[in-house]
Amino acid sequence: MGVIFSLLAGLMITLQSIFNARLGEKLSFWHTNAFVHGSGLIVAFIILLFNEKLNFTPIKAVNPHYLLGGAMGVVIIFSVMKGITDLGASYAVTILIVTQIIATAVINYFGVFGEPIIVFTGIKVFGLLLIVSGLLVYQLA
């Protein structure tokens, strides 16, 4: 199921990014950001009401750093809208993907944020370089 949800997330991130950029052209980026997060909060809350008990008590045991996701989301939405508006969707998303690949590789290498440490063998490094190179060739062609 992880692969299916990852594919769905990739598609939704792409569509959301383009939709947000178009909305940001009519509204300001910050109005769009507020609308995106507000509508997302409403949808998440409705899903929560039907699928979970309303119990936020366990949040007390969470590392405070992990509570920054919503604030990071504001920066993400703004940055993606600005990137797509300035560069176009394909170029902006290519840069985003390369950055994510490098950042997650560093996070996994050092095992930060509770992620398992991944030993980078020569073949894994080659694979990462191949992915990044492929994205860059695609973009520059």
TrEMBL record:
Origin superkingdom: Bacteria
Secretion signal span: none
Species classification: Bacteria, Bacillati, Bacillota, Clostridia, Peptostreptococcales
Protein name: DMT family transporter
Alphabetized UniProt keyword annotations: Membrane, Transmembrane, Transmembrane helix
Transmembrane segments: 30-50, 62-81, 87-110, 117-138
UniProt-listed InterPro entries: YdcZ
Alphabetical list of Pfam families matching this protein: DMT_YdcZ
Entry GO CC: plasma membrane
Taxonomic source organism: Alkaliphilus metalliredigens (strain QYMF)
